[in-house]
Amino acid sequence: xxxxxxEHFENRCQLFNVQSSKQMTRRYTDxxxxxxxxxxxxxxxxxxxxxxxxxxQYFQVSPPSVHQMILTLEANGLIERTPGQARSIRLLIPRExxxxxx
Length: 102
Fold this sequence. Notes:
This protein has helices spanning 7-24, 30-46, 52-59, 63-75; strands at residues 79-80, 90-91. The chain is mainly alpha-helical. It has a two-stranded antiparallel sheet. The termini are far apart. The protein has a domain at 29-97: Arc Repressor Mutant, subunit A (Orthogonal Bundle).
């Protein structure tokens, strides 16, 4: 006896596999994604990168927490900065790979 799978079920399976593989290739945590999205939108609105103080205010965290997050994002190849230059954070991943800002 042959099993017949309706086409709409196959399409859902293919869609699920595509979404799952996209999530598996993500290179950052949810919290890191929020910082990346904040950097993206801040730059889009203001034309420059946010300061660590502005990220601290937005995320309601301590200065060392923000600084450690920036160092982690940089170490993971998600952003780059120019040493000694304020507001020099630059995203290294495309907008399509960023989550929405919560």
